[in-house]
Amino acid sequence: MAMKILEDCIACGACLPECPTNSITDGDIYVIDPVTCVECEGHFDAPKCVEVCPVDCIVKA
User: Domain residues for 2?
Assistant: First the structure.
């Protein structure tokens, strides 16, 4: 399973440095690579991108 960034993304950049697998690509709307996203398993107790997102636009894909 992987996380997905919805179209509500404001491209604030809060999630980029938090991703331990560098699975997030920036742009108008950020995108999470489902191949490399591990939902932070083995790194954190919960997905860090979800914790830091100010608009709550990151969900499980």
Answer: 1-61
How many domains does the chain fold into?
1
Residue type, 24: I
Total Cβ atoms within 10 A of residue 9: 18
Q: How many CB atoms lie within 10 A of CB 59?
A: 11
Please state the pTM of the whole predicted model: 0.92
CB 27 within 8 A of CB 10: no
Question: Does the pLDDT at position 1 exceed 90?
Answer: no
> 57 near 21, Cβ under 8 Å?
no
